[in-house]
Amino acid sequence: MFATTELNVRNSRRQALVQILFMLMTAVLILPVLIILATLIHKGGPAISFEFLFSEPTNGMTAGGIFPALVGTVWLVAVALLVSVPLGVAAAIYLSEFAPQNWFTRIINLAIINLAGVPSIVHALFGVGAFVLFFGFGTSILAASLTLAIMTLPVVIVATRESLQAVPLAFREACWNMGATRWQTIRRVVLPNAVSGILTGVILEVARTTGEPAPIMFTGAAFFLPFLPESVFDQTMALSLHLFVISTQVPGVPDELPYGVALVLIAMVLVMNPLSIAFRMYLRGKKKW
Amino acid sequence: MADDTRPLSVVARPTTDEIDRRNLDWYIDKVVQAVVFICGISAIVFVIGIFVFVTAEGFGFLVDTFDFAEFFGSPRWKPTSEYRTTYGILALIAGTASVTGLAMLVAIPFSLGAAIYIAEFATGKTRETLKVLVELLAAVPSVVWGFIGLTIMNPLIIKTFDVPVGLNVLNAGIILGLMAAPIMTSIAEDALKAVPDRYREAAEAMGATRWQLVFKVVLPAAKNGLLGAVLLGVGRGFGETMAVLMASGHSINLPDSIFDSVRALTATIAAELGETAVGSDHYRALFTIGIFLFIITFIINLTADLIVRGIRKG
Question: What is the pTM of this model?
Answer without folding.
Answer: 0.87
